[in-house]
Amino acid sequence: MEDHIVKIFKESNYLKEIFVNENLSKIVRIVEVLAEVLNAGNKILLFGNGGSAADAQHLAAEFVNRFIIERPPLPAIALTTDASIITSIGNDYGFEYIYSKQIRAIGQPGDVAWGITTSGVSPNVIKALETAKKMGLITVGLTGKDGGDVARIADYVLNVSSDSTPRIQEVHITVGHVICEMLDYRLFQRPNMK
After folding, report:
1. Which is nearest to 169 in space by CA: 54, 14, 3, 28?
2. Closest among 165, 160, 112 to 136, alpha carbons compared
3. Architecture of the 2-188 domain
4. Staple partner for 118: which of 61, 101, 144, 184, CB 3.0–4.6 Å?
5. Residue 76 and residue 43 in contact, taking contact as beta carbons nearer than 8 Å
6. pLDDT tens digits, 1-15
7. Sheet harboring 76-78: ordered strands across?
8. Where along the chain do its domains lie?
């Protein structure tokens, strides 16, 4: 068991190294875009399914509350949290529409629609990103495997080149934290960075 545990940690670390080497300039660009969006008074809408829904909620909380430094709250909403909205849309229209209808209701041009999917082919995430693009929102995709349809739809894509859902999710939350920390730095110039 100990050998297997060590193997899992090594795989996670190795995948994070590959990911940052493949995506460093993209991460920087996404931080710059998010800073511009937030400085303009727009918001970030995050969504996904299962563990990716949890990641959306986790990151929204980091933006709204605080991350590393004391700073003003940043406008972010996880579209994964309102059971009444999700179940009514799912019941009346289908699960595929649970995020796109919310984007239609509260999304504004210049906002960010940030979809998280380990497969890159989640129909409700794809539909939400397509809707967001038509409405003039900036789209960000956090994906895995080969990026799927999300990689072709989103304006900015960070793809984890792996077929292992747990390892992809570990990279997703790591890059989410990196983006939060870099936004603190970019927007407020006060983190303890050396």
Report:
1. 54
2. 112
3. 3-Layer(aba) Sandwich (3.40)
4. 144
5. yes
6. 999 999 999 999 999
7. 76-78, 44-48, 112-116, 138-144, 156-160
8. 2-188
